[in-house]
Amino acid sequence: MIYSELRSDTDLFNELEEAKRVFLVGCPLCANMSLYIQKAAEGSAMVTLTPTGYKAVFMIDEVSRLAHLLAGKGLDVDSWVGKPPAVGLCVLDERVRKKLSSKCQDFDTVITLCCDAGTKSVEGILTGKRVIAAMNARGLATGVSKSKMKIAKLYIDKKTVDIMRFTFDT
What we know:
With 170 residues, the protein is an alpha/beta fold. The protein has one domain: Rossmann fold (3-Layer(aba) Sandwich). Helices cover 31% and strands 36% of the residues. The protein has helices at 9-14, 30-39, 57-72, 94-104, 116-125, and strands spanning 2-6, 21-26, 47-50, 53-56, 76-81, 109-113, 130-133, 135-148, 153-165. A 5-stranded antiparallel β-sheet has the order 1-8-9-3-4. Strands 5-2-6-7 form a 4-stranded parallel β-sheet, sandwiched between helices.
C-alpha cells in the first residue's frame, strides 16, 4: 500500500485563505490504513462492517475532525468518504466519478485526504476546481491484516508493519 502522512493543520489552513466553501474527500483504502498505522491502539478496528457496508474508521474520524476545525473558522464544509473495499480515490469508476463531481460542484475548494495518486485522480475529475492535498505519500508499507468476528472488524497487526520511505535525489 501507499503510506501517506497528514500535513499539519497550520500548513493546510494557510492554503485556504480565499476559501469559503470546502468539500473534504477521504480515501478508505491506503490513506485509512496510513492513519490507522499512525494513530490506532493495537487491535482496534481499522475497518468495520455495518448494516450499510464497510466503514473506514480512521478516515471518517479524521475527516470529521478536520470538518469541525474548518467549520470553526467560519467555512461552509461538507464531506464524503468512499466505502472500502471498492472505492479508492486513485481508481474511481465512472459512477463514483459522477457522484463526486456532483457533490463538489457548489464548493470552491476540495481537500483530499489520500495519497498523491488519489489527489491527481480527483484533480482530473474536478478540472478547474481548486484541489488541496491534506496528505503526502511518504513511502510504501506492508503488514499482516487480521479480522475479528468473521471480518466485521478488520485491523493490521502493527508489529508486522514495515514502512519503506521514499527517498529522492536532488
